[in-house]
C-alpha cells in the first residue's frame, strides 16, 4: 500500500491569533482521526475561541465502515490535544438520517442548541470528493475551504487495521498518516473483542465483493423489507450470519428475477418468520411503501430496498418462528426501539423511523 508523504505536525499546536469568528464547526466521521483531520481542527482552533466537532454516523452498530463509537472517536481526538484545547472543544454526535435535508437541519439544530448566542459561525472543511457536497448545505455559515490533503485517507487506515497480521507493524506503516497518539489509541482499541468480530466481517465483505469483481458493471442490488406492526409492536429478526451477525433487522431479502416487489416482500417475510397469516390478510393491511436508495446504506455495495409497511391492527400477536437465515424472530415493543438504535443492521432503524416517527 502506498502511504502519504505529506508531513503535518503530530500535535495540534495552535499559535494564538485574534479570533475572527464566534464559533468554528468541523464536521466528519473521523473513522479514524488522521493528520488531515488534525489540520482542520488546528485551523478551527485558530479561527474561533469555541469549536464544535460534529461526529457524524453516530449511534450506529459497529461496522467495517464505522468501527468506532462516537465516544471512542472523541477520546481518540482528545488524545491529540492539550488540556487547554480540550476545554475549547465540544463533541456533538449526530446520526445518519439517510436524508440530506433532515441531516443538515439536525446539525444546525445541535449547533444552535450548544451555542444559542453565536452570531458568526465558521464551517471549516475541504472538498475531498463527491461525498463532500454536504459542506454546501449550510449557506448561512461562513465556509472556510482549506487545502485538500488527499494523501490522508481514513479508508486506508481501516483497511490496514483489518488486514493486519501484526498490529504493531501495520500501525508503523501509517506513521506518516497518523499521529503517535492516534496510533497508540488504535493499538489499545484493537485489543477489544469488537475488533476481532470486525476483522471477520471485513474478510466476509471482501470475499463478497470479489465474487462480483468480474461483472462488466458495478452491481446494483434490489431488495425488499417488511415493517409489520400490531398492538404497538413490530416484527424483527436477529441475523444469524454474515453480514451483521447478531444484529436486529427487518425481515427481507433479495428480489428474485421473475418476482414482483410486494410478492417478494411477503415471501421473504414468511421464509424468515413463518408469520401465521394469510397473504390476503397481509395485502389488506398494507399502509405504505417507501424506497430507500442512499448509496451508503449497505456495506455490500449499492443496494436499493423497497420497504412495505403492514399495519395489522390486531389485539393479539400472530405466531412466528425464526427460519431461513434468521437466528431469532420477535415482536418488539415500539417503545424500546430508540434504545436499540446501535443494535440494528444497516439502515433498518431509519426505515422504522420513517414509518413510525421514532426520532421525531
From TrEMBL:
Mind listing the UniProt keywords for this protein, alphabetically? Answer: Nucleotidyltransferase, Transferase
Instruction: Tell me which residues make up the Nudix hydrolase domain.
Output: 207-355
What is the source species?
Undibacterium cyanobacteriorum
On whether Nucleotidyltransferase is a keyword of this UniProt record, the answer is yes
Mind listing the GO molecular function terms for this protein?
nucleotidyltransferase activity
Official protein name in the record: Bifunctional nicotinamide-nucleotide adenylyltransferase/Nudix hydroxylase
> Among its keywords, does the record have Nucleotidyltransferase?
yes
Amino acid at each position: 500500500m502506498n502511504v502519504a508523504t505529506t508531513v503535518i505536525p503530530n500535535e495540534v499546536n495552535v499559535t494564538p491569533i485574534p479570533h475572527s469568528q464566534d464559533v468554528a464547526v468541523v464536521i466528519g466521521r473521523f473513522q479514524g482521526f488522521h493528520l488531515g483531520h488534525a489540520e482542520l481542527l488546528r485551523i478551527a482552533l485558530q479561527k474561533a475561541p469555541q469549536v464544535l466537532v460534529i461526529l457524524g454516523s453516530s449511534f450506529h452498530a459497529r461496522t467495517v465502515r464505522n468501527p468506532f463509537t462516537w465516544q471512542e472517536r472523541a477520546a481518540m481526538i482528545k488524545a491529540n490535544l492539550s488540556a487547554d484545547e480540550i476545554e475549547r472543544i465540544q463533541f456533538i454526535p449526530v446520526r445518519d438520517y439517510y436524508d440530506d435535508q433532515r441531516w443538515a437541519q439536525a446539525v444546525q439544530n445541535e449547533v444552535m442548541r450548544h451555542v444559542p448566542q453565536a452570531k458568526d459561525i465558521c464551517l471549516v472543511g475541504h472538498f475531498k470528493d463527491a461525498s463532500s457536497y454536504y459542506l454546501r448545505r449550510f449557506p448561512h455559515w461562513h465556509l472556510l475551504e482549506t487545502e485538500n490533503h488527499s494523501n490522508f485517507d481514513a479508508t486506508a487506515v481501516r483497511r490496514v487495521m483489518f488486514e493486519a497480521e501484526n498490529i504493531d507493524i501495520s500501525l508503523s506503516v501509517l506513521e506518516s498518516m497518523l499521529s503517535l497518539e492516534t496510533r497508540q489509541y488504535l493499538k489499545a482499541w484493537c485489543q477489544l473483542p469488537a475488533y476481532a468480530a470486525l476483522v471477520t466481517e471485513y474478510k466476509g465483505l471482501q470475499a463478497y465483493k470479489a465474487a462480483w469483481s468480474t461483472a462488466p458493471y458495478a452491481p446494483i442490488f434490489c431488495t425488499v423489507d417488511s415493517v409489520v406492526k400490531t398492538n404497538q409492536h413490530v416484527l424483527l429478526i436477529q441475523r444469524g450470519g454474515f453480514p451483521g451477525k447478531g444484529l436486529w433487522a427487518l425481515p427481507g431479502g433479495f428480489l428474485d428475477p421473475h418476482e414482483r416487489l410486494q410478492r417478494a416482500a411477503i415471501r421473504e417475510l414468511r421464509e424468515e418468520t413463518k408469520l401465521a397469516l394469510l397473504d390476503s390478510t397481509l395485502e389488506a393491511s398494507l399502509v405504505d411503501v417507501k424506497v430507500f436508495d442512499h448509496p451508503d446504506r449497505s456495506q455490500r455495495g449499492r443496494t436499493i430496498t423497497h420497504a412495505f409497511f403492514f399495519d395489522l391492527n390486531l389485539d393479539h400477536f400472530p405466531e412466528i418462528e425464526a427460519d431461513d437465515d434468521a437466528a431469532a424472530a420477535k415482536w418488539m415493543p415500539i417503545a424500546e426501539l430508540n434504545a436499540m438504535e446501535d443494535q440494528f443492521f444497516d439502515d433498518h432503524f431509519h426505515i422504522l423511523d420513517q414509518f413510525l416517527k421514532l426520532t421525531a
